[in-house]
Amino acid sequence: MLRRAASRPGEEQIRPLCSSDLGLSFPVFDKGVTSAAVQQARIQEENSRLALADQRQSVALDVRRPWLTLESTRQLVNARNALAFQNALLPCYTGELDPAKALLDG
User: Fold this and answer.
1) How far is the C-alpha of 17 from the C-alpha of 61, rounded, in Å?
2) Distance between CA atoms of residues 71 and 77, nearest Å
3) pLDDT tens-digit profile of 7-45?
4) Single pTM value for the model
5) Per residue in 55-96, pLDDT tens?
6) C-alpha R_g of the chain
7) According to DSSP H, which parts of the chain are helical?
8) CB 29 within 8 A of CB 39
9) Measured in Å, how far apart are the chain's first and last C-alpha atoms?
10) Cβ neighbours around 97 below 10 Å, total
């Protein structure tokens, strides 16, 4: 509703019966909530990076262990074969057996 008011004699002015103000406010200081959230996010990021590095290292070990087992088993088999071959030829070196016959019999 509007009301008419005279500001000077002979003049009428229309003014509202009520008024309102519109304001916008935001906190300048938030008691460290924002910086704490940022710090927490950085810590979580670092924890994720460390967990990823740990997982990569674990996978590398899981792959390397069987490979090392295979290599050591291969070396052991080769050493046993070489020893067996030497044992088969040992009588030849001592003069107890003919080398050609040892290879054919062996």
Assistant:
1) 81
2) 10
3) 566 666 666 666 677 777 766 677 778 889 999 999 999
4) 0.45
5) 999 999 999 999 999 999 999 999 999 988 888 777 666 666
6) 47
7) 33-93, 99-105
8) no
9) 122
10) 15
